[in-house]
Amino acid sequence: MSRFRPKSEIRKLVIHCADTPNGRPHTAADIDRWHGENNPPFVRRAPSGGSTVFGHIGYHWVIRLSGASEVGRGIEETGAHAGPRHNADSLAVCLVGRDKFTRAQWDTLRHLVTGLRKQFPHLEVTGHRDLPGVPPRTCPGFSVADWLANSMQPLPEHLLEESP
């Protein structure tokens, strides 16, 4: 698979979570480092020790607790986040946390999805756990379909309470 693809091939946005303890302030650099440590399922090198499977973080964006969005890959760069079947035609965003996210993260996710839908009018927005042919997962730790049906507003049971 080519490392790059034309924007015209992008069909979906896959929402992920970092599967880190809720409320812990991690960054795209942290996630990139974890993936680079060759811990399954994020093995960067072929089992034979041969060529690199992917050279850096597989997500296009990471949304930190503060709501800051960090770029991991360019839009035209093929992702490495959901297996070849889905990476080829998708973009990926990863929320730091497991199943509870700050209001700032929810707001940034809503703005990102809104902007991407303008750029890609037929964009399907889905959760990693909802992709066909992907092993069962809980990522992200909320139902993307419920979030979309809730006008992309924070799902109360998945809102991280912030300290006063």
From TrEMBL:
It holds the Pfam family Amidase_2. GO terms for biological process: peptidoglycan catabolic process. Gene3D superfamilies: Peptidoglycan recognition protein-like. It comes from the Bacteria. Residues 1-141 form the N-acetylmuramoyl-L-alanine amidase domain. GO terms for molecular function: N-acetylmuramoyl-L-alanine amidase activity. InterPro entries: Amidase/PGRP_sf (IPR036505), Amidase_domain (IPR002502). CDD domains: PGRP (cd06583). This is N-acetylmuramyl-L-alanine amidase, negative regulator of AmpC, AmpD.
